[in-house]
Design a protein that fits this description.
The complex is a heterodimer. In chain A, strand 10 and strand 11 form a beta hairpin. Chain A contains 10 helices and 11 strands. Chain A is an alpha/beta fold. In chain A, the strands form 2 sheets. A 6-stranded mixed sheet of chain A has the order 7-8-9-3-10-11, with helices on both faces. Chain A folds into 2 domains: 194 residues, Rossmann fold (3-Layer(aba) Sandwich), CATH 3.40.50.300; 76 residues, no CATH class. The radius of gyration of chain A is 20 Å and the shape is globular. Chain B is of the alpha/beta class. Chain B has a single domain, classed as Rossmann fold (3-Layer(aba) Sandwich). Chain B is built from 9 helices and 10 strands. In chain B, strand 4 and strand 5 form a beta hairpin. The longest helix of chain B is centred in the last third of the chain and has 18 residues. Classes of the chains: A alpha/beta, B alpha/beta.
Chain lengths: 277, 246
Protein backbone atom coordinates (compact mmCIF):
# COMPACT_ATOMS: atom_id res chain seq x y z
CA UNK A 1 0.00 0.00 0.00
CA UNK A 2 1.44 3.34 -1.01
CA UNK A 3 1.59 5.99 1.66
CA UNK A 4 -0.89 8.82 1.56
CA UNK A 5 1.06 10.92 3.99
CA UNK A 6 4.68 10.78 5.08
CA UNK A 7 5.96 12.89 7.93
CA UNK A 8 9.52 12.95 9.19
CA UNK A 9 10.86 15.01 12.05
CA UNK A 10 7.97 17.48 12.21
CA UNK A 11 8.56 20.40 14.52
CA UNK A 12 6.27 23.30 15.43
CA UNK A 13 7.79 26.25 17.25
CA UNK A 14 6.33 29.40 18.76
CA UNK A 15 8.53 32.29 19.88
CA UNK A 16 7.97 33.52 23.43
CA UNK A 17 9.68 36.25 25.46
CA UNK A 18 11.66 33.46 27.14
CA UNK A 19 12.90 31.93 23.91
CA UNK A 20 11.38 29.53 21.40
CA UNK A 21 8.84 27.04 22.65
CA UNK A 22 8.71 23.80 20.73
CA UNK A 23 5.19 22.35 20.95
CA UNK A 24 5.74 19.49 18.50
CA UNK A 25 9.20 18.03 18.90
CA UNK A 26 10.31 15.94 15.98
CA UNK A 27 7.52 13.47 15.29
CA UNK A 28 7.50 11.06 12.37
CA UNK A 29 4.79 8.81 11.02
CA UNK A 30 3.31 7.53 7.80
CA UNK A 31 -0.32 7.06 6.94
CA UNK A 32 -1.90 4.83 4.34
CA UNK A 33 -5.58 4.57 3.56
CA UNK A 34 -6.26 3.67 7.17
CA UNK A 35 -7.59 5.12 10.38
CA UNK A 36 -4.91 6.59 12.62
CA UNK A 37 -5.70 7.87 16.10
CA UNK A 38 -3.61 10.50 17.89
CA UNK A 39 -4.25 10.70 21.63
CA UNK A 40 -2.80 12.82 24.38
CA UNK A 41 -3.74 15.39 26.98
CA UNK A 42 -4.27 19.08 26.29
CA UNK A 43 -0.97 20.63 25.41
CA UNK A 44 0.52 17.42 24.06
CA UNK A 45 0.74 18.87 20.54
CA UNK A 46 -1.84 16.60 18.92
CA UNK A 47 -3.95 19.39 17.43
CA UNK A 48 -0.85 21.25 16.29
CA UNK A 49 0.23 18.14 14.41
CA UNK A 50 -3.13 18.04 12.60
CA UNK A 51 -2.98 21.72 11.79
CA UNK A 52 0.56 21.66 10.52
CA UNK A 53 -0.42 19.05 7.91
CA UNK A 54 -2.86 21.57 6.45
CA UNK A 55 -0.34 24.41 6.91
CA UNK A 56 -2.81 26.17 9.16
CA UNK A 57 -0.23 27.38 11.65
CA UNK A 58 0.11 31.12 11.25
CA UNK A 59 3.16 33.27 11.89
CA UNK A 60 4.82 33.73 14.32
CA UNK A 61 4.43 29.94 14.66
CA UNK A 62 6.92 27.98 12.53
CA UNK A 63 6.61 24.52 11.03
CA UNK A 64 9.71 22.64 9.96
CA UNK A 65 10.10 19.04 8.87
CA UNK A 66 12.57 16.86 7.00
CA UNK A 67 9.64 15.52 5.07
CA UNK A 68 5.97 16.47 4.87
CA UNK A 69 4.67 14.78 1.78
CA UNK A 70 1.03 14.17 0.92
CA UNK A 71 0.38 11.88 -2.07
CA UNK A 72 3.64 12.94 -3.74
CA UNK A 73 3.12 16.65 -3.01
CA UNK A 74 5.64 18.40 -0.78
CA UNK A 75 3.34 20.44 1.43
CA UNK A 76 6.15 22.58 2.83
CA UNK A 77 7.00 23.97 -0.62
CA UNK A 78 3.43 24.91 -1.49
CA UNK A 79 2.46 28.57 -1.55
CA UNK A 80 -0.57 29.75 0.35
CA UNK A 81 -2.50 29.87 -2.93
CA UNK A 82 -1.52 26.34 -3.88
CA UNK A 83 -2.40 25.11 -0.39
CA UNK A 84 -5.91 26.47 -0.85
CA UNK A 85 -6.41 24.09 -3.75
CA UNK A 86 -5.48 21.18 -1.48
CA UNK A 87 -7.43 22.20 1.59
CA UNK A 88 -10.94 20.88 1.40
CA UNK A 89 -10.49 19.19 -1.96
CA UNK A 90 -7.75 16.71 -0.98
CA UNK A 91 -7.36 17.05 2.78
CA UNK A 92 -10.10 18.37 5.00
CA UNK A 93 -10.57 18.88 8.69
CA UNK A 94 -13.53 18.50 11.02
CA UNK A 95 -13.20 20.89 13.95
CA UNK A 96 -14.23 20.43 17.52
CA UNK A 97 -17.17 22.72 18.00
CA UNK A 98 -19.90 23.25 15.40
CA UNK A 99 -21.02 26.37 17.24
CA UNK A 100 -17.85 28.22 16.35
CA UNK A 101 -16.93 26.57 13.08
CA UNK A 102 -20.04 27.14 10.97
CA UNK A 103 -20.82 30.49 9.38
CA UNK A 104 -23.74 31.92 11.38
CA UNK A 105 -25.11 34.09 8.55
CA UNK A 106 -25.24 31.46 5.79
CA UNK A 107 -27.78 28.69 5.54
CA UNK A 108 -26.54 25.15 5.92
CA UNK A 109 -27.28 24.35 2.28
CA UNK A 110 -25.31 27.37 1.03
CA UNK A 111 -22.32 26.53 3.21
CA UNK A 112 -22.13 22.97 2.00
CA UNK A 113 -22.53 24.10 -1.61
CA UNK A 114 -19.73 26.62 -1.11
CA UNK A 115 -17.36 23.83 -0.05
CA UNK A 116 -18.08 22.13 -3.35
CA UNK A 117 -18.10 25.19 -5.63
CA UNK A 118 -14.79 26.48 -4.32
CA UNK A 119 -13.08 23.57 -6.02
CA UNK A 120 -15.14 22.85 -9.10
CA UNK A 121 -17.68 24.45 -11.43
CA UNK A 122 -20.98 22.60 -11.48
CA UNK A 123 -24.49 23.42 -12.67
CA UNK A 124 -26.77 24.62 -9.90
CA UNK A 125 -29.13 21.67 -10.18
CA UNK A 126 -26.33 19.19 -9.70
CA UNK A 127 -24.94 21.13 -6.75
CA UNK A 128 -28.35 21.05 -5.06
CA UNK A 129 -28.74 17.36 -5.68
CA UNK A 130 -25.31 16.62 -4.25
CA UNK A 131 -25.86 18.78 -1.17
CA UNK A 132 -29.10 16.96 -0.42
CA UNK A 133 -27.53 13.55 -1.05
CA UNK A 134 -24.64 14.44 1.26
CA UNK A 135 -26.98 15.58 4.03
CA UNK A 136 -28.84 12.33 3.65
CA UNK A 137 -25.64 10.31 3.92
CA UNK A 138 -24.88 11.94 7.30
CA UNK A 139 -28.32 10.67 8.33
CA UNK A 140 -30.24 13.90 8.34
CA UNK A 141 -33.82 12.79 7.91
CA UNK A 142 -35.28 15.83 6.17
CA UNK A 143 -32.41 17.28 4.07
CA UNK A 144 -34.51 19.80 2.15
CA UNK A 145 -35.73 21.48 5.32
CA UNK A 146 -32.35 21.35 7.07
CA UNK A 147 -30.55 22.86 4.05
CA UNK A 148 -32.66 26.00 4.50
CA UNK A 149 -31.89 26.37 8.21
CA UNK A 150 -29.19 28.53 9.80
CA UNK A 151 -26.62 26.96 12.15
CA UNK A 152 -28.26 28.34 15.32
CA UNK A 153 -31.46 26.51 14.42
CA UNK A 154 -29.95 23.03 14.70
CA UNK A 155 -28.70 21.03 17.68
CA UNK A 156 -25.03 20.38 18.40
CA UNK A 157 -25.15 16.85 17.05
CA UNK A 158 -26.83 17.96 13.86
CA UNK A 159 -24.38 20.87 13.50
CA UNK A 160 -21.50 18.43 13.73
CA UNK A 161 -23.08 16.21 11.07
CA UNK A 162 -23.49 19.29 8.86
CA UNK A 163 -19.80 20.03 9.29
CA UNK A 164 -18.91 16.46 8.38
CA UNK A 165 -21.11 16.75 5.27
CA UNK A 166 -19.31 19.96 4.34
CA UNK A 167 -15.89 18.38 4.77
CA UNK A 168 -16.73 15.24 2.83
CA UNK A 169 -18.63 16.69 -0.12
CA UNK A 170 -15.49 17.51 -2.19
CA UNK A 171 -14.48 13.86 -1.59
CA UNK A 172 -11.07 14.41 -0.02
CA UNK A 173 -8.46 11.67 0.27
CA UNK A 174 -7.59 12.47 3.85
CA UNK A 175 -9.87 13.57 6.66
CA UNK A 176 -8.44 15.06 9.83
CA UNK A 177 -10.97 14.97 12.66
CA UNK A 178 -9.84 17.10 15.59
CA UNK A 179 -11.92 16.10 18.64
CA UNK A 180 -14.99 15.82 16.42
CA UNK A 181 -17.28 14.70 19.21
CA UNK A 182 -16.04 16.23 22.44
CA UNK A 183 -18.74 18.93 22.32
CA UNK A 184 -21.44 16.26 21.95
CA UNK A 185 -23.46 13.93 24.14
CA UNK A 186 -22.44 10.30 24.53
CA UNK A 187 -25.47 9.03 22.63
CA UNK A 188 -24.93 11.45 19.72
CA UNK A 189 -21.17 10.86 19.85
CA UNK A 190 -21.54 7.25 18.79
CA UNK A 191 -23.82 8.24 15.90
CA UNK A 192 -21.45 10.87 14.55
CA UNK A 193 -18.46 8.56 14.78
CA UNK A 194 -20.33 5.75 13.05
CA UNK A 195 -21.11 8.14 10.19
CA UNK A 196 -17.47 9.19 9.83
CA UNK A 197 -16.39 5.58 10.06
CA UNK A 198 -18.81 4.41 7.40
CA UNK A 199 -17.97 7.21 4.95
CA UNK A 200 -14.24 6.75 5.45
CA UNK A 201 -14.53 3.04 4.77
CA UNK A 202 -16.82 3.42 1.77
CA UNK A 203 -14.67 6.01 0.05
CA UNK A 204 -11.36 4.42 1.03
CA UNK A 205 -10.11 7.61 2.63
CA UNK A 206 -7.37 8.06 5.18
CA UNK A 207 -8.45 9.30 8.60
CA UNK A 208 -6.50 11.01 11.34
CA UNK A 209 -8.63 11.04 14.46
CA UNK A 210 -7.36 13.37 17.16
CA UNK A 211 -8.84 12.95 20.62
CA UNK A 212 -8.05 12.80 24.30
CA UNK A 213 -10.43 9.90 24.77
CA UNK A 214 -8.46 6.65 24.68
CA UNK A 215 -11.50 4.40 24.61
CA UNK A 216 -13.05 6.23 21.73
CA UNK A 217 -9.86 6.21 19.70
CA UNK A 218 -9.20 2.55 20.30
CA UNK A 219 -12.68 1.59 19.12
CA UNK A 220 -12.62 3.69 15.91
CA UNK A 221 -9.04 3.44 14.70
CA UNK A 222 -6.63 0.82 13.34
CA UNK A 223 -3.46 2.32 14.75
CA UNK A 224 -2.77 4.73 17.60
CA UNK A 225 -0.06 7.26 18.35
CA UNK A 226 0.17 8.43 21.95
CA UNK A 227 1.59 11.93 22.31
CA UNK A 228 3.00 13.66 25.36
CA UNK A 229 4.71 17.06 25.47
CA UNK A 230 5.14 17.22 21.71
CA UNK A 231 6.59 13.76 21.24
CA UNK A 232 5.17 10.41 20.23
CA UNK A 233 5.76 8.21 23.26
CA UNK A 234 4.10 5.09 21.95
CA UNK A 235 2.71 3.65 18.75
CA UNK A 236 0.54 0.57 18.75
CA UNK A 237 -2.33 -1.24 17.10
CA UNK A 238 -5.70 -0.16 18.46
CA UNK A 239 -6.50 -3.63 19.80
CA UNK A 240 -3.25 -3.70 21.75
CA UNK A 241 -3.73 -0.40 23.54
CA UNK A 242 -4.61 -2.09 26.80
CA UNK A 243 -1.25 -3.85 26.66
CA UNK A 244 0.61 -0.55 26.22
CA UNK A 245 4.04 -0.36 27.78
CA UNK A 246 4.91 3.29 28.23
CA UNK A 247 4.17 4.57 31.75
CA UNK A 248 2.35 7.60 30.32
CA UNK A 249 -0.07 5.51 28.27
CA UNK A 250 -0.61 3.12 31.16
CA UNK A 251 -1.24 6.06 33.49
CA UNK A 252 -3.84 7.49 31.11
CA UNK A 253 -5.64 4.16 30.83
CA UNK A 254 -5.64 3.62 34.58
CA UNK A 255 -7.08 7.07 35.30
CA UNK A 256 -10.34 6.38 33.42
CA UNK A 257 -13.17 5.33 35.71
CA UNK A 258 -14.98 2.15 34.69
CA UNK A 259 -18.64 1.28 34.61
CA UNK A 260 -18.11 -1.37 37.28
CA UNK A 261 -15.72 0.79 39.32
CA UNK A 262 -14.45 -0.74 42.57
CA UNK A 263 -11.36 1.37 43.19
CA UNK A 264 -11.68 3.80 46.06
CA UNK A 265 -9.31 6.28 44.47
CA UNK A 266 -8.29 6.73 40.85
CA UNK A 267 -4.58 6.62 40.09
CA UNK A 268 -3.24 10.00 39.05
CA UNK A 269 -0.45 10.48 36.53
CA UNK A 270 2.94 10.72 38.16
CA UNK A 271 4.58 13.03 35.68
CA UNK A 272 8.01 12.65 37.19
CA UNK A 273 8.16 9.02 36.06
CA UNK A 274 9.05 9.81 32.46
CA UNK A 275 9.74 13.54 32.35
CA UNK A 276 13.19 14.44 31.20
CA UNK A 277 14.58 17.28 33.30
CA UNK B 1 -32.48 13.02 57.53
CA UNK B 2 -33.29 14.25 54.05
CA UNK B 3 -30.76 16.75 52.75
CA UNK B 4 -32.60 17.66 49.58
CA UNK B 5 -36.14 16.89 48.59
CA UNK B 6 -38.00 17.80 45.40
CA UNK B 7 -41.77 17.35 45.18
CA UNK B 8 -43.80 17.58 41.97
CA UNK B 9 -41.25 19.95 40.50
CA UNK B 10 -42.34 21.44 37.15
CA UNK B 11 -39.82 23.89 35.69
CA UNK B 12 -40.52 26.16 32.71
CA UNK B 13 -38.57 28.56 30.55
CA UNK B 14 -41.26 30.96 29.34
CA UNK B 15 -44.01 28.95 27.68
CA UNK B 16 -41.96 25.78 27.42
CA UNK B 17 -42.24 23.34 30.28
CA UNK B 18 -38.90 21.59 30.75
CA UNK B 19 -39.48 19.11 33.56
CA UNK B 20 -42.62 17.26 34.52
CA UNK B 21 -43.37 16.15 38.04
CA UNK B 22 -39.86 15.51 39.32
CA UNK B 23 -39.77 13.84 42.75
CA UNK B 24 -36.52 13.08 44.54
CA UNK B 25 -35.37 12.50 48.11
CA UNK B 26 -31.65 12.63 48.76
CA UNK B 27 -30.40 11.60 52.19
CA UNK B 28 -27.87 13.56 54.21
CA UNK B 29 -24.36 12.60 53.12
CA UNK B 30 -25.56 10.79 50.04
CA UNK B 31 -24.05 11.22 46.59
CA UNK B 32 -26.78 11.19 43.97
CA UNK B 33 -26.46 11.35 40.18
CA UNK B 34 -28.87 12.61 37.54
CA UNK B 35 -28.09 11.09 34.15
CA UNK B 36 -29.61 11.49 30.71
CA UNK B 37 -28.88 12.97 27.31
CA UNK B 38 -28.77 16.70 26.42
CA UNK B 39 -32.16 18.29 26.64
CA UNK B 40 -33.48 15.80 29.18
CA UNK B 41 -33.79 18.57 31.78
CA UNK B 42 -31.16 17.31 34.19
CA UNK B 43 -29.19 20.58 34.36
CA UNK B 44 -32.43 22.53 34.60
CA UNK B 45 -33.27 20.70 37.83
CA UNK B 46 -29.95 21.86 39.32
CA UNK B 47 -30.53 25.41 38.11
CA UNK B 48 -33.95 25.54 39.70
CA UNK B 49 -32.53 24.35 43.02
CA UNK B 50 -29.74 26.93 42.81
CA UNK B 51 -32.23 29.69 41.99
CA UNK B 52 -31.09 30.24 38.40
CA UNK B 53 -34.37 29.04 36.87
CA UNK B 54 -36.99 30.79 38.98
CA UNK B 55 -40.08 29.68 37.02
CA UNK B 56 -41.03 26.53 38.86
CA UNK B 57 -43.92 25.09 40.76
CA UNK B 58 -43.78 22.35 43.38
CA UNK B 59 -41.56 22.13 46.42
CA UNK B 60 -37.79 22.34 46.87
CA UNK B 61 -36.65 21.62 50.42
CA UNK B 62 -33.03 21.74 51.54
CA UNK B 63 -32.17 20.40 55.00
CA UNK B 64 -35.73 20.78 56.20
CA UNK B 65 -36.34 24.37 55.07
CA UNK B 66 -38.33 25.06 51.90
CA UNK B 67 -36.81 27.27 49.26
CA UNK B 68 -38.60 30.35 47.93
CA UNK B 69 -38.40 31.72 44.41
CA UNK B 70 -36.15 34.66 45.18
CA UNK B 71 -32.60 35.17 46.36
CA UNK B 72 -32.14 33.53 49.73
CA UNK B 73 -28.90 34.07 51.65
CA UNK B 74 -29.60 31.43 54.26
CA UNK B 75 -30.13 28.99 51.44
CA UNK B 76 -26.83 29.97 49.76
CA UNK B 77 -25.00 29.05 52.91
CA UNK B 78 -26.46 25.54 52.80
CA UNK B 79 -26.27 24.77 49.11
CA UNK B 80 -23.82 25.77 46.39
CA UNK B 81 -23.26 24.86 42.75
CA UNK B 82 -20.17 23.94 40.69
CA UNK B 83 -20.53 24.52 36.95
CA UNK B 84 -19.45 22.49 33.98
CA UNK B 85 -16.95 24.70 32.26
CA UNK B 86 -14.20 26.18 34.41
CA UNK B 87 -13.21 28.31 31.41
CA UNK B 88 -16.57 30.08 31.48
CA UNK B 89 -17.59 30.04 35.13
CA UNK B 90 -14.79 32.15 36.63
CA UNK B 91 -14.69 35.93 36.18
CA UNK B 92 -11.76 36.57 33.82
CA UNK B 93 -10.78 39.85 35.48
CA UNK B 94 -10.96 38.74 39.08
CA UNK B 95 -8.08 37.04 40.84
CA UNK B 96 -8.60 33.75 42.65
CA UNK B 97 -8.51 35.76 45.88
CA UNK B 98 -11.30 38.09 44.72
CA UNK B 99 -13.43 35.21 43.43
CA UNK B 100 -13.13 33.32 46.70
CA UNK B 101 -13.53 36.41 48.90
CA UNK B 102 -16.68 37.71 47.22
CA UNK B 103 -19.00 35.27 48.97
CA UNK B 104 -17.56 36.30 52.35
CA UNK B 105 -18.16 39.99 51.61
CA UNK B 106 -21.77 39.37 50.53
CA UNK B 107 -22.52 37.38 53.64
CA UNK B 108 -20.60 39.72 55.95
CA UNK B 109 -18.22 37.06 57.17
CA UNK B 110 -14.85 38.20 58.50
CA UNK B 111 -11.66 36.23 58.93
CA UNK B 112 -11.19 36.43 55.19
CA UNK B 113 -7.50 35.65 55.02
CA UNK B 114 -7.65 32.48 57.07
CA UNK B 115 -10.78 31.18 55.37
CA UNK B 116 -9.39 31.64 51.87
CA UNK B 117 -6.15 29.90 52.80
CA UNK B 118 -8.03 27.07 54.46
CA UNK B 119 -10.30 26.42 51.48
CA UNK B 120 -7.42 26.62 49.00
CA UNK B 121 -5.50 24.06 51.01
CA UNK B 122 -8.50 21.75 51.16
CA UNK B 123 -8.88 21.68 47.35
CA UNK B 124 -5.14 21.17 46.86
CA UNK B 125 -4.29 24.58 45.41
CA UNK B 126 -0.89 25.96 46.30
CA UNK B 127 -0.81 29.39 48.03
CA UNK B 128 1.09 30.89 45.11
CA UNK B 129 -2.07 30.74 42.98
CA UNK B 130 -4.02 33.06 45.27
CA UNK B 131 -3.36 36.26 43.36
CA UNK B 132 -3.47 34.85 39.86
CA UNK B 133 -6.13 35.35 37.20
CA UNK B 134 -8.06 32.43 35.67
CA UNK B 135 -6.15 32.65 32.37
CA UNK B 136 -2.95 31.91 34.26
CA UNK B 137 -4.31 28.57 35.46
CA UNK B 138 -4.81 25.20 33.76
CA UNK B 139 -8.27 23.67 33.34
CA UNK B 140 -7.83 21.40 36.35
CA UNK B 141 -6.63 24.26 38.54
CA UNK B 142 -9.58 26.39 37.44
CA UNK B 143 -12.02 23.65 38.36
CA UNK B 144 -10.34 23.47 41.77
CA UNK B 145 -10.93 27.21 42.15
CA UNK B 146 -14.59 26.73 41.15
CA UNK B 147 -14.96 24.00 43.78
CA UNK B 148 -13.16 26.15 46.36
CA UNK B 149 -15.56 29.01 45.60
CA UNK B 150 -18.54 26.74 46.18
CA UNK B 151 -17.04 25.61 49.51
CA UNK B 152 -16.33 29.14 50.82
CA UNK B 153 -19.58 29.36 52.78
CA UNK B 154 -19.17 25.82 54.16
CA UNK B 155 -22.36 24.47 52.54
CA UNK B 156 -23.76 21.04 53.28
CA UNK B 157 -25.11 20.34 49.81
CA UNK B 158 -23.13 20.68 46.57
CA UNK B 159 -24.81 20.74 43.17
CA UNK B 160 -22.34 19.55 40.53
CA UNK B 161 -23.15 20.17 36.86
CA UNK B 162 -20.88 17.90 34.78
CA UNK B 163 -17.87 18.90 36.88
CA UNK B 164 -15.32 16.97 34.83
CA UNK B 165 -16.66 16.78 31.28
CA UNK B 166 -14.56 19.72 30.06
CA UNK B 167 -11.35 18.15 31.40
CA UNK B 168 -8.80 15.62 30.15
CA UNK B 169 -9.11 12.08 31.52
CA UNK B 170 -5.98 12.42 33.65
CA UNK B 171 -7.20 15.70 35.17
CA UNK B 172 -10.69 14.24 35.52
CA UNK B 173 -9.22 11.56 37.78
CA UNK B 174 -7.65 14.23 40.02
CA UNK B 175 -10.90 16.20 40.34
CA UNK B 176 -12.96 13.05 41.00
CA UNK B 177 -10.55 12.01 43.75
CA UNK B 178 -10.77 15.52 45.20
CA UNK B 179 -14.59 15.48 45.23
CA UNK B 180 -14.62 12.08 46.87
CA UNK B 181 -12.18 13.19 49.56
CA UNK B 182 -14.07 16.45 50.25
CA UNK B 183 -17.33 14.57 50.64
CA UNK B 184 -15.74 12.21 53.15
CA UNK B 185 -13.97 14.97 55.11
CA UNK B 186 -16.79 17.53 55.23
CA UNK B 187 -19.73 15.13 55.15
CA UNK B 188 -21.18 16.79 52.05
CA UNK B 189 -24.25 15.75 50.08
CA UNK B 190 -23.76 15.70 46.31
CA UNK B 191 -26.32 16.04 43.56
CA UNK B 192 -24.37 15.56 40.35
CA UNK B 193 -25.49 15.86 36.75
CA UNK B 194 -23.47 13.87 34.25
CA UNK B 195 -23.76 11.79 31.12
CA UNK B 196 -20.77 9.66 32.01
CA UNK B 197 -21.98 6.51 33.76
CA UNK B 198 -18.45 5.48 34.71
CA UNK B 199 -18.12 8.67 36.75
CA UNK B 200 -21.41 7.82 38.47
CA UNK B 201 -20.05 4.39 39.28
CA UNK B 202 -16.97 5.92 40.89
CA UNK B 203 -18.52 8.79 42.83
CA UNK B 204 -22.19 8.11 43.56
CA UNK B 205 -24.46 5.92 45.69
CA UNK B 206 -27.70 6.23 43.71
CA UNK B 207 -28.75 7.55 40.34
CA UNK B 208 -31.87 8.77 38.56
CA UNK B 209 -32.25 8.46 34.80
CA UNK B 210 -34.04 11.38 33.14
CA UNK B 211 -35.63 11.54 29.74
CA UNK B 212 -37.66 14.37 28.21
CA UNK B 213 -38.09 16.11 31.54
CA UNK B 214 -39.22 13.07 33.51
CA UNK B 215 -37.41 10.71 35.83
CA UNK B 216 -37.79 7.27 34.30
CA UNK B 217 -35.85 5.26 36.86
CA UNK B 218 -34.13 5.58 40.23
CA UNK B 219 -31.58 2.88 41.00
CA UNK B 220 -28.68 2.00 43.27
CA UNK B 221 -25.21 2.31 41.81
CA UNK B 222 -24.73 -1.36 42.75
CA UNK B 223 -27.41 -2.15 40.15
CA UNK B 224 -25.54 -0.07 37.58
CA UNK B 225 -22.30 -1.92 38.33
CA UNK B 226 -24.06 -5.24 37.85
CA UNK B 227 -25.69 -3.92 34.67
CA UNK B 228 -29.05 -4.41 36.28
CA UNK B 229 -31.16 -1.38 35.35
CA UNK B 230 -34.85 -2.00 34.68
CA UNK B 231 -35.99 0.57 32.12
CA UNK B 232 -35.17 -0.07 28.45
CA UNK B 233 -33.95 3.52 28.06
CA UNK B 234 -31.53 3.19 31.01
CA UNK B 235 -30.20 -0.04 29.54
CA UNK B 236 -29.69 1.73 26.21
CA UNK B 237 -27.60 4.44 27.92
CA UNK B 238 -25.64 1.75 29.72
CA UNK B 239 -24.92 -0.13 26.52
CA UNK B 240 -23.61 2.99 24.80
CA UNK B 241 -21.25 3.61 27.73
CA UNK B 242 -20.16 0.00 27.82
CA UNK B 243 -19.47 -0.06 24.07
CA UNK B 244 -17.12 2.85 24.48
CA UNK B 245 -15.29 1.35 27.40
CA UNK B 246 -14.08 -1.63 25.44
Amino acid sequence: MSNLLEIENLRVTFPTPRGDLEVVRGISFTLGRERLGIVGESGSGKSMTGRSILQLIRAPGRVTADKLVFDGIDLLKRSERQMRAIRGARISMVMQDPKFSLNPVMTIGEQIAEALLTHQKLPRREVNARVLAMLESVRIADPERVARLYPHEVSGGMGQRVMIAMMLIPEPDLLIADEPTSALDVSVQAQVLDIIDELVKRKGMGLIFISHDLNLVSSYCDRILVMNTGEVVEECKAGELMAAKHPYTRGLIASIPRLDETRDELPVLDRSAWAKA
Amino acid sequence: MTALSLKNLDISYGDVQITHDVNLDIADGESFALVGESGSGKSTVLKAIAGLAPEWTGEITVLGSPRGHGIDRAFSRQCQMVFQDPYGSLHPRKTVDATLGEALTIHGIGDRNARIEEVMASVGLDRKFRFRFPHQLSGGQRQRVAIARALMLKPKVLLLDEPTSALDVSVQAEILNLLKRLRREQNLTFLMVTHNLAVVSFLCDRLAVMRQGRIVEVADVADLKRGDLREPYSRELMQISAAHAN
